[in-house]
Design brief:
The protein has 18 helices and 19 strands. The protein is of the alpha/beta class. Among the domains are: about 1-40; about 45-135, no CATH class. The strands form two sheets. The protein has a 16-stranded mixed β-sheet that branches. The chain starts with 7 loop residues before the first helix and ends with a helix.
Length: about 450
């Protein structure tokens, strides 16, 4: 055997490319390959049940695992040491006495770095064994069913105390409001995702903005009022010797909020933000989004990847044009549409690679507009200015706009090109460069909407 095939580092890289089903055979092939191969097999677990089955005498009674006879953990501990990532989407219950022995000196999963859980019940195996001092990434899915208040508090508080070096946290579902305090203390985070509805408070957002290493942030803040956030920032400043720098390391931001709050947050972020995804919410009775002002703020950053979303859930496109004929209604629709003149305000983003504008009322471009886009953004590789599922358009079998070739870096086009002819049955174009475009389908009942565009 070549000496190189006896080097652990080389073997581990090779085994990363092997199917997991073949690694047990590899482990039995050669004594020198056994440990590297088994490390690869056990490094990622989708359930902790295979690990528990290494305990001699393990039985399951009424959904609770227990052990018959004396407890021997030698084999269990040797394999637990190999585990680095666990994903557990259901509860696994172990007899309290056994669980206490397993965690008497901390979790046996001492090399664990990534945990994805759907329960924080410390009486269950997944949550109890995931409290590793080496944990770097935590992903919790609380689900969307109402739970008892404080159900997650013990786990999060213990986690903060034990896993002091957690860098990435992702929370999803209905979270307890009292977790805001715990989130505010995680100042070492590099990445934070909170898809938790109206869970986040202005005070917690103010605390998050001061995290010195936070480079990626995803939040839902449509319920937060701009004045409340300003007040929270003001109170935070009075508690410090000097005014804090907000979002000092932020590079990627995904935020769902009302337009005034979007503008305020973007104005506080240093100019090296390169990936931005905003979802503009418009509560009932609120004025249309001031896209001009918002786009002007966006251009103060060095954005490479930009996604803009706005969905007016209270509007039925199939009936609006036929039933809504008042000038005020049509003016409101026009104000919510992002027109080419508004897109022109994004022209200063010279290094833009990816642009997606996904709105209820889609922008419609001509060939001349495409030429302008190519001049503004020579490095653009992805352009999506409308959904092919919109009721305003259907995909076309006709040719894409003649000026698409102006984009040297183009990989994907999904835009609505003004065209009076519909070329028949929808058909998706495929190929090395997937260029998709839609044509305007002018139905008599929709003429009022299209007239303004």
């Amino acid at each position: 055997m070549h000496p190189v095939l006896l080097l652990d580092d080389v073997l581990r890289q090779m085994f990363d490319f092997c199917p997991k089903s073949s690694l047990p055979v590899v482990a039995r092939t050669c004594k020198s390959w056994k440990d590297p191969a088994l490390d690869c097999v056990w490094s990622h677990l989708g359930s902790l049940v295979p690990l528990l089955r290494l305990i001699p005498g393990l039985i399951c009674v009424d959904g609770v695992y227990n052990v018959e006879g004396p407890l021997h953990l030698g084999v269990f501990n040797s394999y637990a040491y190999r585990i680095q990532h666990i994903t557990q989407r259901h509860n696994t219950r172990l007899h309290p006495k056994i669980l206490h022995v397993l965690c008497a000196n901390g979790t046996p999963l001492t090399r664990l770095t990534t945990t994805r859980l759907s329960s924080t019940d410390l009486d269950c195996v997944p949550a109890a064994l995931s409290l590793s001092a080496g944990l770097r990434q935590l992903d919790l899915d609380f689900g969307f069913k109402r739970k008892e208040p404080g159900m997650h508090d013990d786990y999060i508080e213990t986690l903060i105390r034990v896993a002091t070096n957690v860098e990435r946290v992702r929370l999803r579902g209905l979270a307890d409001q009292r977790l805001n305090s715990a989130i505010s203390q995680m100042s070492n985070l590099c990445s934070l995702s909170l898809r938790t509805g109206p869970f986040l408070t202005a005070e917690t957002l103010a605390a998050i903005s001061t995290f010195p290493s936070l480079s990626e942030l995803e939040i839902e803040a449509g319920h937060i009022d701009i004045d409340t956030l300003v007040e929270a920032w003001s109170l935070s400043s009075t508690c410090r010797d000097s005014a804090p720098t907000h979002f000092r390391a932020l590079k990627k931001l995904h935020i769902c909020a009302q337009a005034p709050l979007l503008e305020l947050v973007l104005k506080t972020i240093p100019p090296y933000l390169h990936t931005l995804r905003i979802e503009a919410t418009t509560p009932a009775g609120s004025p249309p989004v001031d896209w001009s002002s918002l786009f002007d703020v966006i251009t103060t950053h060095a954005i490479h990847d930009l996604t803009i979303e706005q969905h007016l859930d209270d509007i039925d496109l199939d009936t609006t044009a036929a039933t809504s004929t008042s000038a005020n209604t049509q003016h409101s629709y026009s104000n919510n549409r992002i027109t080419f003149d508004l897109i022109r305000r994004l022209a200063p983003l010279r290094y833009l690679h990816h642009l997606t504008i996904d709105t209820t009322f889609i922008p419609i471009l001509s060939d001349q507009d495409i030429e302008a886009l190519a001049a503004w953004w020579p490095d653009l590789a992805h352009l999506d200015l409308g959904s092919l599922h919109s009721s305003e358009c259907l995909p076309s079998t006709g040719s894409p706009p003649r000026n698409v070739s102006l984009f040297a870096s183009f990989r994907l086009l999904d835009a609505e090109i003004a065209n009076p002819h519909f070329a028949g049955r929808p058909q998706r174009r495929t190929g090395p460069d997937d260029l998709r475009h839609g044509v305007q389908r002018v139905v008599e009942s929709h003429v009022l909407i299209f007239r303004s565009s």
